[in-house]
Amino acid sequence: MATIVDESAIPKSAATAVPRRGSPRIALTAALAASVAIVAVFADTAWSIVSIWIRSETFTHGFVVIPIALWLGWRKREELAAARAAPWFPGAALVALCGALWAILTIGGVLVGSQFALAFMVIAAFVSIVGLRAARVLAFPLAFLLFAVPAGEVLVPTLIDWTADFTVAALRLSGVPVYREANHFIIPSGAWSVVEACSGLRYLIASLMTGVLFAALVYRSASRRIAFVAASIIVPVFANWLRAYMIVMLGHLSGNTIAVGVDHFIYGWVFFGVVLLLLFWVGSLWSEHAPAASDFVRAPDLRAPAPASRFTAAAVLAIVLAAVWRPVPAMFGADVVANGSALQPVGAARGWTPSAVPPLAWRPDYKGMTAELNQGFTSASGPAGLYVAQYRGQARGREMITTANALVSPSDRVWRAERRGAVEVSWNGTPVTAQRTTVLGNGTRITVYSLYWIDGVVTSSGAMAKLGVMLSRLRGRGDDSMLVVAYAADSADRDAARELLEAYAPELDNMFRRVAPRAR
Length: 520
What we know:
Blueprint: E1 10-11, H1 12-16, H2 25-41, H3 43-55, H4 62-75, H5 77-82, H6 91-107, H7 111-130, H8 132-137, H9 139-144, H10 156-173, E2 179-181, E3 184-187, E4 190-193, H11 201-218, H12 222-253, H13 262-284, E5 296-297, H14 308-323, H15 328-331, E6 353-355, E7 371-378, E8 384-391, E9 416-427, E10 430-441, E11 444-454, E12 457-459, H16 462-474, E13 481-489, H17 496-515
Antiparallel strand pairs: 1-5, 2-3, 3-4, 6-7, 7-8, 8-13, 9-10, 10-11, 11-12, 11-13
Helix pairs in contact: 2-3, 2-7, 2-14, 3-7, 6-7, 6-14, 6-16, 7-14, 10-12, 11-12, 11-13, 12-13
């Protein structure tokens, strides 16, 4: 009678006692070599990741991600010894798909997207070389590599707003009168601002990465792992709100003698450290040390190991299918030299007369443009200004849509933005959506209308503008893009900024088509 063996319930001790045939050592060597080669081929994207680790305190954790992933893989060595490694050649299609995604996102100037595409490319190459069975063993170490990509800055404005909302509400509940303008507020003891460093993004990223690692090492059940990871996201957000409130209260109660200098940041990190330790301590109370399914490995595969030549072939195939996409962005104008055509001042139109200087000291906080125009106008509606920035040959540091560009920087201590909303305006006779923003500072309220022009298409959405740049390049029409901003001092009876934008829309549209002649 045949004996039925449950392969999933063989303890490690029993599995490792069987002769190790089909050792994955050659497969791992080939996969690591291919990974290094792919990173070298896409060195510019890889360097963009490392350079952010270097310059941004929020993402310095990136330096430890790869060592931790290697350590996590080393912990799986006994399970790997029992897993027969054999190339999974269909996985090479995933490498090609990731390469195509990298090319498309690079063409579109989506830096974080191209960085993720490179990370997925390396993971796909690894899986295709070592095979599905060995890849299952290394699933978590491979997935952990994604923490190396510096992502999350898009959350900063939202986190700042949430922190300011909570801090102001908590101060009022504490009996402290507050006057608020956007993310700046004044209390009897002084003025405070919630800036980028107060958003809590670095706390959130640090908590999430360590929380995922903790959950994988301490828990066995999926439900506990999911619950702890969720807690590692929610707890630092609430902790940052409390931190901001306590710092303001410490400053207020001490007459601004404490929590207003370097100690401001020291108190913040100490508080976050205590919260994180409490989170892990509470999480450890539900740790799962009893043997579970993941503490056992399958019976070793006694089939003959795949020959080294197959791993070499799989590694070469992965490198080739990745490298073939490297020159593609240049073919679609992603590497165009950023030479901009001069933007000429516009003349009188529809009752508006150009003035010698812009009406206000404010200007949009955009950088990297190839040309710009900031012109003042007067009419019966009052003074108003028109700002235009041209972008061509967009690349890192020269992009129109990026987290570094905004009407008002979150770190600006003079100007602040509030009341953002989409409104319909007339652009050259066609209704389009513009972004309406109120900018405050220097005792002035400014009404601002902003939109983007890409290859003849007008939109107020940054995401749609980014997509428009990508589609324009893919059609071979370049990436000429314009930021259009009309602004005027806030008035109760006339919307001068809107009137100016609609009056000059036809002339601006014609001017843009001249400086970007491929747009029709």
